[in-house]
Request: fold
Amino acid sequence: MTARPLTPAFGSVVIGDQRIAAIDIGSNSIRQIVADVSPTGQIRVLDELKAMPRLGEGLERTGALGQTALDAALAAVQRMVLLANQLGAIRIDIVATSAVRDATNGLEFTTRVQALTGVEVRILSGEEEALLCYRSALAHFELGAGRSLVMDIGGGSLEIVLAKDGLIERVASLPFGAVRLTERFLSPMVRPRGVRELRAHVRAGLKKAAPVKDWRGVHVIGSGGTFTNLAGMMLARQGMTSRAPHGTRITRVELEHVLDWLQRLHPEERATVPGLNPARADIIVAGLAVAAEVLARFDANSVVGSGYGIREGLLLEAARVTPVIADPGAARERSVREFAERCHYEEPHSRQVQRLSMQLFDALAPRMGLGAVDRQILSDAALLHDVGYHINYENHHKHSFHLISHAELLGMTPAEQIAIAHVARYHRGAEPKRKHRGFWQLDRVLRQRIVKLSALLRFADGLDRGHVGAVGLVKVRWSADVVRMNVAEAEGAASVRLECWGAARKSALLATVLGRPVEVVAPDGTVVTFDEGDSE
Reply:
């Protein structure tokens, strides 16, 4: 069993929040989360515990939970309840899924859990399990527009929810769990023939249970260990091993390539694959095969991995929080703003820099080869560039990078989040360099975009050097030999001399990116310069 504390101290509960513990007893693992849940659905995690007793192991053959796994599971749940009590949880919810649901001695197990812990175990139906997964997805993704499919692959079963504009239209629970199918088709050894038979079995089941009319090309979200490990492997390939897997998009072609590669590895080799949890190496092939068949059935181009699942859905249910159905962009804007507020950001300055950054972007993006995704990255980085003040002023740009990198920001991919963190980091101080390992290990194209966006943010930040919102407008004048930035005062501003000097001081990287000098022109027509000996 492993424990992973996520906050430096347990502290007191914020007024209005509820401290709740959720324990999910699955076929492969038992996972606990203890968190403070706000009335609006914000989840602040205090601690997590995980154990892997493999309750579902042998169930397909014997119909019952094995004694060794059962004893290990009882001990794990006891420790989890003890931790929840020590952390002051006012409510502890325990649910059991496929393995306990299907086992002949499942009721005996839940009775023993209650006797040992004093907490009743709720055995979820397949539909209840699916709805909790969907509740969690609704809180962490933008599902307010269009058709979506949320699937959760556990050890014993596959749950599917089909929804339109955030409203559920169909729920299905199928016996296609990773442990169950591994034992039936891929034991004792993973072989291509076994994988083919497994996929044919899943394909036939999906054909009966999941109609595809009107659902082809649906937006797919995957929760559960299969998808977090798939995302981890993809992030490892991209040099982003420190990033959480939530929000990673994997194309159907990439999924098929990974599946083909993993099934040809020896078990020992599979356990060493970067980004793959060694404890899941023996069942990952079955999980990915199921995912591949779901995508094929619905003719979906990709799947987005979720870092959240049944436990988070259970927390929201226990706190009686109904997630808001978010339209595209709403969840992202809300989570970025709330993160900035938690870091006690200086809102007037951040909003001013964001506004000026957008002016510059709209004027220069076509010449810089930047698009709509880059605009959003710059906008978020501008709002968050100074959150490092939350730690201290010195090196606050580096603190901003670390805070943003590890924040739970919704509605964006891991690559976009890491780009936002880097752009914020380079709003001051040294320019991006090869010796900056975290930057240089990124994909070359992503590095180039970060440099361009950082140049725009540096210049915009300089335009609010006094933090008083003195600049009202920047007009860009492009010519063959120079780029002129004509600065206009905001209504009521006394002077923008300091802001013009600040922008000129931070124009070097932008000049490099644009391939020509950048001149800052004050309202009176004067070209503002600065002392090159100055630094910041």
Notes: The chain has three domains: 2-123, 127-314, 330-528. The radius of gyration is 26 Å. Confidence is low (pLDDT under 50) at residues 1-10. The domain at 127-314 is CATH 3.30.420.150 (Nucleotidyltransferase; domain 5).
